[in-house]
């Protein structure tokens, strides 16, 4: 196996055209790779063309089909123009994965109104812009599948009140769109809410935060963090025919970590300090199978090292 090692059936998406925003790095890159490995024509979109070009070259080397487009999802006019360009070139747009977004760490007491508004605009408004553009540009008449990547925020989001508010808004919006767009337009809209995932996004955090992340991975019911591949597989499932009767849900992919939020001091005693007994799924090819020297996860080194530990976990 020289390409992405998906658990799903080969050619499952051979007739699909899928747009993945934020597809140039991290989870978005992994989603794009898996969908392309399953036969989809993938269009990845983000603000930085250099990252998009790099991922498209990776996918093409592996025999996949990948196109790129630059976009600022905060601009609704540009969003619609992009959807129309995709339909003009590829004939359709059957799936949309809203993965683009961003945030930074700050206690609410130190967060400015501008900082709050910026994150809400990018994540909540940007996701709506893309959903509406997909509806107006193709899916309203032809149907389709949408997956919005959010965050696990059911019990609040300390130190990230801005993204907690934005992602909660997306979750509610997803339910509303499922009700409004399902019956007459044939559109399914769902969310995936990742927990802490070993990904390149961790490079945006200060060194002290990375240190904390690297040493606290065992403090959850699953005893580890998640992998990009586990998020990608969840997205692929929700886009697949197997999820045809799933609409308006928020699928938490967090190893049960959200169940432990808000426990009183000492809740760490409920978890296993030796780490995980739950094997991790990683779809990137390794060793002799990685004939194209495909880069794997690009998280900070001390966090990346956790993946090697997870791969050895077994009951």
Shape, principal axes of CA atoms: globular
For the largest beta sheet, what order do the strands appear in spatially?
3-2-1-4-5-6-9
Rg calc = 19 Å
- Provide mean pLDDT, rounded: 88
- Elements, N to C (H/E): EHEHEHEHEHEEHEHEH
Task: Give me the secondary-structure category.
Answer: alpha/beta
Major sheet attributes: 7 strands, parallel
Count of helical regions: 8
Q: Between the first and last Cα atoms, what is the distance in angstroms?
A: 26 Å
**What is the β-strand count?**
9
Strand content: 5-15%
What are the key terms here?
globular; two-stranded parallel sheet; alpha/beta; single chain; seven-stranded parallel sheet; 315 residues
Structure description:
The chain has 315 residues and is of the alpha/beta class. The chain has eight helices and nine strands. The strands form two sheets. Strands 3-2-1-4-5-6-9 form a seven-stranded parallel β-sheet, with helices on both faces. Strands 7-8 form a two-stranded parallel sheet. Strand 2, helix 2 and strand 3 form a beta-alpha-beta unit. The longest helix has 30 residues. It is globular, with a radius of gyration of 19 Å. The two termini are 26 Å apart. Participates in chain elongation of fatty acids. Catalyzes the reduction of trans-2-enoyl-CoAs of varying chain lengths from 6:1 to 16:1, having maximum activity with 10:1 CoA. Has no 2,4-dienoyl-CoA reductase activity.
